[in-house]
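At this stage, I wrote out one protein, both as residues and as discrete backbone shape codes, and that material follows here.
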Amino acid sequence: MSAIPVFSLYGETDHWPTPDLLHCESIAERSRLHDWHIRAHRHADLVHLLVLYEGEVELELEGATHHASAPLVIVVPPLCIHGFHFSPCIQGHILTLAAPLVEQLAQTLPEASRIWRRASVQVLPEGGASQRLVELVRHIDGEYRRPAAGRDALLSALIQALTIEASRLAIGDHDTTSVTNAHQRSRQHLRRLEMLIETSFRQQPGVEELATQLELSSAHLNSICRQQAGASALNLLHQRLVLEARRELTYTNLTIAQISDGLGFSEPAYFTRFFKRLTGYSPRDFRKRQQTPG
């Protein structure tokens, strides 16, 4: 079997390089060591934020290829398969956040920190929000590199500010203070559901089981999902199953029967019907398309 590589930091297999829960460096520092090409991989417990000021990148993100030019912001959450091919003239920074730091942000900034859980590629528009984000990244880089008094406290404050600015940028700089308490509770329920699905999707729990664990009724849970995510709870579970199936069909040599069994299907034929219904392709045809050049 050929598994998807899981790395500790940006294409390498060594341990986390500092006692901090944050790592910051220029994109060129590491990518030039790899001839500007970081092959597809994923991280179990790291989040990347890449901010490109100049240059171009060919980005592989969950099996899709994007060609983009700076100015650009890229978010790569845990377990998201990604690879980069930068132009040699690339200028920018990459911030890597360890899971405990992301969890701290989730506790402190439950709404804004959602930005770190979804893969995204966003062109930086002209204006104050983009400039503030770039200035924050550069401030973090400067503070990260020097052992000054109060460094940890200042880095913590800067990362919180960066989380808020990145979130505002992603939603069009809306004023989050106008969000109602009911809306906040719904978002929290959705986040808990996403975490529950992430840990249990291979067992294919039913909607009633998910709702019970969240201490909600099935009808209320589905109402929240449709309002917040535009899909039912079952649809969200199915989307996660399809995503994992696509990953394994693309990046491993597991047989279709092995993938079916690993994703909790009772038989490969049922998995094949399920996958084709949601993607338009049988698992076998999908794998062939991924393996065909161009």
About this structure: The two ends are 24 Å apart (CA to CA). Confidence is low (pLDDT under 50) at residues 6-17, 173-180. Residues 155 and 244 are 35 Å apart (CA to CA).
